[in-house]
Amino acid sequence: PKHKTPAGKLNLIREVLLNNGKTQGWLAGELDLELRTVNNYVNNRRQPSLDKLFEISRVLKVNVKELINS
Fold first, then answer.
1. Cystine design at 48: which of 3, 8, 33, 52 (Cβ 3.0–4.6 Å)?
2. Would you say 44 and 11 are in contact if contact means Cβ atoms under 8 Å apart?
3. Distance (Å, whole) CA 57 – CA 64
């Protein structure tokens, strides 16, 4: 069975999008993903793969560490 993620946010994609004035729709288009998938990442219901996290950091022009809640 899948384990529930611990309380709190694992990724900070929502915050980085807001800080850059970008929308979930824009990010979905840049990554060629469904909006539903990006929305799941943004709301921490699902986590992107490491490869996808690096791709997100590239299109948002931020260091990948800014996307991770450490």
1. 52
2. yes
3. 5
User: How far is the C-alpha of 24 from the C-alpha of 45, rounded, in Å?
Assistant: 15
Distance CA 15, CA 3 (A): 25
**CA-wise closest residue to 59 among 6, 20, 15, 12:** 20
Residue-by-residue DSSP string for 5-61? PPSS-SB-HHHHHHHTT--HHHHHHHHT--HHHHHHHHTTSS---HHHHHHHHHHHT
Encode pLDDT of 14-48 as tens digits: 999 999 999 999 999 999 999 999 999 999 999 99
